[in-house]
Specification:
The structure holds two protein chains of two kinds. Chain A is an alpha/beta fold. Chain A contains nine helices and 26 strands. Chain A is globular, with a radius of gyration of 23 Å. Chain A starts with a strand and ends in a 6-residue tail after the last strand. Chain B contains two helices and ten strands, in the order E-E-E-H-E-E-E-E-H-E-E-E. Chain B has helices at 35-46, 79-86, and strands spanning 2-7, 16-22, 25-30, 49-50, 53-59, 65-70, 74-75, 91-92, 100-102, 112-114. Classes of the chains: A alpha/beta, B alpha+beta. The interface between A and B is medium-sized, with 34 and 30 residues.
Chain lengths: 432, 121
Amino acid sequence: MKYYDLVIVGGGPAGLAAAVSARDCGIEDILILERDNELGGILNQCIHNGFGLHTFKEELTGPEYAARFIDQVTECGIDCKLHTMVMDISVDTETGSSRKKVTAMNRTDGMFEISAAAVILAMGCRERSRGALNIPGFRPAGIFSAGTAQRLVNMEGYMPGREVVILGSGDIGLIMARRMTLEGAKVKVVAELMPYSGGLKRNIVQCLDDFGIPLKLSHTVIDIEGKHQVSAVTIAEVGADRKPIPGTEERYTCDTLLLSCGLIPENELSKGAGVALSPVTFGPVVNDSLETSIEGVFACGNVLHVHDLVDYVSQEAAAAGKHAADYIRHGNKKHAKTIEIHSTDGVRYTVPKYIRPTEMSDTLTVRFRVGDVYKNCSIAVYFDDTCVSRRKRPVMAPGEMEQIILEKKKLGEYPDIGSITIRIEEEGGNLL
Amino acid sequence: MSTRELTCIGCPLGCTVTVTLENGSVITVTGNTCPRGDAYARKEVTNPTRIVTSTVPVTGGIHPMVNVKTASDIPKDKIFACMDALKGVRAAAPVHIGDVILSNAADTGVDIIAAGNVPAK
């Protein structure tokens, strides 16, 4: 068995930023395990620009953003094993301590075990598949998730098709509408089940409007035709119950259907390890140090909750790296008082879910998403029944992450606090 | 006199902004809720620009394709001319971020540069 202070599962934006941060905090013995043959994760196929506005104050492409962090990891001399699949994470029973045993395999080393003082989960997320969407119709070739098409076009140099219908207006679907159009395909329509888009406004304008691609809100696919290859797709309008309305069907001949219908944190390993998962985010439930229900196992990036901007992934991962370093040095503050953050009235969840007022950093960023489009509302924070802050937001949408900052000093003024509540309120403090 | 409707991309609010033009100059901007909307609409109707990103094949590299982009924003109506100019362009590994892949793409005066690293095989 090999021994490391810190093992990071995943070498995408989260894993890279976590590694650099832990190294900056003095942890030298770090190993990144990455399934692909290079570092960078999903950024390698995201060739569009707009990454890094917050972190680097410039608009980079995905590979450029990744390269900034890969360079740092390389300069620090952090160990990486590429082409390596982690099979299992468990408590290392042999040493009888709280160390973790990471089982992985690759072609060079075969199956091997690593004992780690701490583990950071940074496996990212997966796209919701056709099977999970229950779309009726035949099962011909030509149905891809938007991310698969993105990899084919941008990294492997293949065009999946020439006439395209896209279901779902997530950002990857919008980006691929533009990308396929630039490469000579005809994107006929983007259908979105919800009455609002799940993507950023900027992408709707620059990826659809710029090219005259129609976006049909409250529409879904009700039939796929084609024996070997997709030959046509039928979409229909849906009512408030999200069921198709008879008589609204429109048939589009096409050879390709792309699905951009949401992302789900990739937590098979976490489940296997016994990490408690949130039924809302499908990611681990974490405290203010981004530590999961298992001591010494931390999570960050899209494996924790799906982010809108990579800059926030890097920030969160840097925090996870710092907290893992603290844990490796000082162990777990098991007996610190822990309070829960309740999310209600439009706030779907918060990351973190639990806070230790005595252990938290001086300021803590709490991130969340809202469940609907809210205009002229406020984000209100309550310590028990006392409203301690109310921040006005002209507009909030499910496609964009929101955040509030909690201050340790402020929490210290409420030593008997039982819980924190975050909710959306209409103007004047009325409940929705 | 003519009018154009735009969706502002300054923030998630996405205001529908109406611009009135006469002989190519902006007369009024309405529908915006903040000054950013006004500035965005004026630029968008008089001189819309975009960064164009794409990929080109790489010979002798560890990957078959490399990410490229225009070194700065180009006029929006030159997007497809830029894509056409990239047809048949190949890069030879090793490719480094910032390498010029195609100079003065489609007579825009802007170079297309590598936006990814591809080491030689």
